[in-house]
Amino acid sequence: AFQWKSKNKLFLFFPAYTMVQDDRKENAFERSNSLLYNFFDKPVTWFHDVIVKPNQKSYPWYHQKFRRVPTIDQCYTDDAVCQFEADAQFKRDRQVDSEILNILRQRFEDCVHYETPDHKTKCADILETYNKAAEHWFIKYGDLGFYGQSKAAYMKQKHRMIWERRHGPVGSGMKTQESNDH
């Protein structure tokens, strides 16, 4: 930081910002405001800086963490607030899963761009991871539409489980009555 003085103002230059300080004296009103402010703020600031902050664990916060709320299967049918929170949680989960899928897709595209002649062998594991993640994303969120809600996803999961119990894994075809009888 360096200083530059012009008439009665002192400019302090820092790389990120500039502060202006006045050389003039404070009048009685400003002094009383400063005294009152410092009377209440200084003890609280001191307590926070000396007592509270050293006794806290420091966690790296990279993004906002939301408390997990009950899912739609844990809500009562007449509890609109719980259902709203479950829908909000579902939408956040969908955004996170979609972003993870975008990151995996971008990693595969970067790998192909970087390893172009041999990309089929060198990027195979990334492509397999992406395809598996895309399949799981579609199992959970596919065919729900843009405004898909948690109740629709829950019903989709229920119908899939019933199908798999009756006919085996999805995509293997329907079992006939003869194979179901034993």
From TrEMBL:
Q: Where in the cell is it found?
A: Mitochondrion inner membrane
GO cellular component terms listed in the entry, alphabetical order? mitochondrial inner membrane; respiratory chain complex I
Q: Which InterPro entries match?
A: NADH_UbQ_OxRdtase_su10 (IPR019377), NDUFB10 (IPR039993)
Looking up Pfam families in the UniProt record yields:
NDUFB10 (PF10249)
| Bilayer topology annotation | Peripheral membrane protein
Question: Which keywords describe this protein according to UniProt?
Answer: Electron transport, Membrane, Mitochondrion, Mitochondrion inner membrane, Respiratory chain, Transport, Ubiquinone
Q: Which family does it belong to?
A: Belongs to the complex I NDUFB10 subunit family.
Q: What is this protein called?
A: NADH dehydrogenase [ubiquinone] 1 beta subcomplex subunit 10
Question: Which lineage?
Answer: Eukaryota, Metazoa, Ecdysozoa, Arthropoda, Hexapoda
